[in-house]
Protein: 2-oxoglutarate-dependent ethylene/succinate-forming enzyme
Amino acid sequence: MIPHIDAQALAARTPEALAATKYGAEEVGFLTLHNTALTASAVSETIAAYRAFFKGDVANKEAVNMNVTGSNRGWGGAGSEQVDPAANPDYKEVFDCGVELPKDDPFARLPVYAPNQWPAAPEGFQHCIEGYFTQARAVSLKLLQGISAAIGADPTFFADKFAKPMALLRGNFYPERPSWAGAKDFGIAAHTDYGCLTLLATDGQPGLEVQLRDGTWVPVQADPGTFIINFGEMLEMWTAGQVRATPHRVIGGTVERISIPLFFNPAYDTNVAPAGAPPLSAGEHLSKRYAETYTHLQGAS
Ligand SMILES: O=C(O)CCC(=O)C(=O)O
Ligand SMILES: [Fe+2]
Structure:
């Protein structure tokens, strides 16, 4: 099953926490995590800010619609993402923000570092989301260092790779599953995440399902203050398959749901190919996956 990790115990590198983390990373591809620097109330406030945005005025959302841009910052309405080519575009809505670089940085003009778009309402939205994003990146780096210790890799390896992270913070809003939804319609269809690790907070509603090695789907639920952690394609490549990028999905049900994934991706020019393989930059991989999955970017590259 999915191991539950105490972040403080992992930071202290206790044998129990290291063993459970290793099992989660190598066998399941999922963990749950508690006792981080992000409190339950900080998560709940952030969920409330996203909820006010998603359930608010449509014109306020349209004003920051990402579909008229060449990148993925701002609001994506229902159908803005198709994570599984065999399924229909997802019925969820999203709000994405990322890391902006100083204008004179050589990477600043790359779409993966595009400027954020902030809505006029609700009041305080930008401040709340940016505060959460900063803290969540710190929690994620510490966790990634704990994971490398757990799998026998060098924990000091990562810090400089994440100095200019292509990190993306997303609010996902799953309305009630639409009455028209069929077998190919999902809140988010089955997919693996693209980056290194994902730090996911949810409002406590169930809905996320994880695919085990035997193909069965198991539910995973977390209240604010507990995080669901999973690993993405870059970490799977980087570790030559030692860490698993596990498929997951949300079919959706009768209760609306909000989740907040932080996709913790390294800097554009990080080589994420396994040792001995031809180099592959994190930026190329991420740009390719964005172009495959955001419907307004499909066919763009
Ligand atoms: O909402 C969830 O629980 C999962 C979301 C997810 O998998 C994603 O945004 O990549
Ligand atoms: Fe995901």
The pocket of 2-oxoglutaric acid (ligand 1) is lined by residues 170, 172, 188, 193, 200, 202, 208, 248, 250, 259, 261 (CB under 6 Å). The radius of gyration is 18 Å. The longest strand covers residues 257-264.
